[in-house]
Amino acid sequence: MTDVLRRGRASLAFSFLVQGVAFALLVTRIPAIQDRYGVSDALLPAFLAAVPILAGVGSVTTERLVKRVRPSMLLRWSQPVVLLALLGVGAGERMVELGVALAAFGLAVGVLDASMNMLGVSLQRSYGRSIMLSFHAAYSLGGIAGASLAWVGAHWDLALWVSYLPVVALLLPAVLVGSRWYVDDGAAPAVAERAGEGQVVVFKWLLPLCLVMTVAYIGDSTVSNWSAKYLKDVLGSSEQMATVPYNVYMVTTLLGRAIGDLGVRRFGAVSVVRGGALVAAGGFAVVAVAPGAWVGMLGFTLLGLGLCVLVPQTFAAVGRLFPGASDAAVARLNVFNYVGFLIGSPLVGALGDAWSYRGAMVVPMVLVLVTLVYARSFAPQPDRYGGGHERPRTADVGRGSNGL
Questions:
Q1: 41 CB contacts (<8 Å, ≥6 apart)?
Q2: How far is 119 from 201, CA to CA, in rounded Å?
Q3: pLDDT tens digits for 275-311?
Q4: Phi, psi of 93 (to 5 degrees)
Q5: Which 8-state DSSP code applies to residue 40?
Q6: Residue 39: exposure state from Cβ atoms within 10 A (0-12, 13-18, ≥19)
C-alpha cells in the first residue's frame, strides 16, 4: 500500500491546491464580476451569500450520496464542475447567467469540500500519523497562486473569461488525470460499511467541533473581508499597503500548515489547537490596539499562524471521534465552514458601523478563545462503539509508524 498511499496523498493534495486557485480567482475578482454584470451594491450581498448557502446544501447532499457513491467518485466529478462554473462566471453576459454559474459553483464546492476532507481524514487514518495540515497547506498555496493570477488579470485589465480560460484549460485535464489515484477509506471495503451503516453520528458529541469550525471561519472571513479596510480607514495606511495584510495572512497560513503536522506528531493535537487559539486571539488583540499600520500587519501575521491549524485539526478530530462514520460526520461538520463564513463578515461590519472597528476585532478574539474550552474534543476519545478502550493518539501512532 505504500505507493498507493503516496500517490493518493499527492493527488488529493493537488485537488486541494486546485480548489484554492479556483476559490481565490472567484473572490478576488468580485469587483470585476460586479462591473461585468451590472450587479448593484444592494444586490451584491445576496449573490455572495448564495454561494456558501448552496455549498452547505451540497455538503448535506454529500452525506446522503456517500452511502451509495464513494467520496473519490464525488470528488472526481465535482471538481471539474467547479472549474467550469468558474469559467461560466467569467464568460456570461446576463445576470441570470451569473446566477446559474454561481449556483453551480456553490453546490459543487459543497460536494468538493466535503469529499476532499473525507478522503483526507481516511488517508490520515491509513497513514497512522498527522498529515491533514499538509492538504490544507496545499489549499493555501493554491489561494496564493490564484490571488496572484487575479492580480495579473486586474493589472492588465483582462476580461474575466480571458483570465479564467487558460487556468481552467490547464487544471481541468490535470485534475481528471490525477483523480485516478484517489484512495478511499480502507482501500476497498463495502460502501455501506465504509459509510458507517448502523452507526450514528451523535450531534452532542459533534457540536464542540462544529463550534470550533464556525469560530475558525468567523476569524478567517474577518481577515479576508476587513483587513484592507481596517488598515486603510482605521490605521491610516496607503491603499497600496492595505492590500498587504491578506497576502501576509495567506503566506503565514501556508507556513503554519506546512510545519503543523510536525507539531501534532510531537506535541499532540490538543496542544497544537490550544496554541493556535492563543496565538490567533493574540493576533486579534494586536490588531485591535495597533497604533499604526505596521503593528496592525504584525497582528494579521499572528492571525495566520494561529488560525491555520484549527480547521484541519477539526476535520482530523471528527475522523477520530466517529471512526466508523467519518464520511457522514465530515459532511455535517463541513456545513459549519459556511455558517462561519456567513456570520463573520456581516458581524464585523455591523459592529464596526454601530460601534467601532477596533471594538469589532475584540469579538472574534473572544470567540477564538472559546476554542480553549473545547480543546479536549481534539484528544483521543473513548471508543463509544464498544470495547471502552482509549484510541491511540495520532502523535503516538506516528512515533511507531514506518514513516510512509
A1: none
A2: 18
A3: 999 999 999 999 999 999 999 999 999 999 999 999 9
A4: -130, -30
A5: -
A6: middle
pLDDT digits (tens, 9 = 90+) for 239-270: 768 878 888 898 999 999 999 999 999 999 99
pLDDT at position 382 is: 56
CA gap 385, 201 in Å, rounded: 11
pLDDT of residue 188: 36
Side-chain half-sphere of 90: how many Cα atoms within 13 Å? 24
What is the spatial distance between Cα 90 and Cα 17, in angstroms, rounded to a whole number?
21
Task: Give every residue of the chain whose pLDDT is below 50, as ranges.
Answer: 187-198, 383-404
Phi, psi of 274 (to 5 degrees): -60, -45
Q: DSSP label at 191?
A: H
Give CA–CA dist 343/217, Å, rounded.
9
Q: State the Cα angle at 205 between 376 and 398, rounded to 5°.
A: 50
Q: How far is CA 252 from CA 119, 231, 292, 302, 360, in A?
A: 25, 18, 20, 8, 23
Q: pLDDT (tens digit, 9 = 90+) per residue, 330-343? A: 999 999 999 999 99
Average pLDDT value for the chain: 88
The CA distances from residue 48 to 74, 219, 346, 395, in Å, are 25, 18, 12, 40
Torsion over CA: 185, 191, 197, 202 (sign): positive
Tally helices (H) and strands (E) across the chain.
17, 0
Question: What CA–CA distance (Å, rounded) separates 120 from 345?
Answer: 28
What's the distance, Cα to Cα, between the start and end of the chain in Å? 10
Q: Residue 334 contacts by C-beta under 8 Å, 6 or more apart in sequence?
A: 59, 62, 110, 113, 114, 117
CA distance 340 to 276: 18
CA-closest candidate to residue 184, choices 308, 11, 351: 11
CA-nearest of 112, 106, 162 to 142 is: 112
Residue 35: Cβ within 10 Å count: 11
Cell of 346: 456581516
For residues 277 and 250, give the distance between their C-alpha atoms in angstroms, rounded to a whole number: 17
Q: What is the pLDDT of residue 186?
A: 54
Is residue 130 classed exposed, middle or buried when 0-12, 13-18 and 19+ CB atoms within 10 A define those classes? buried
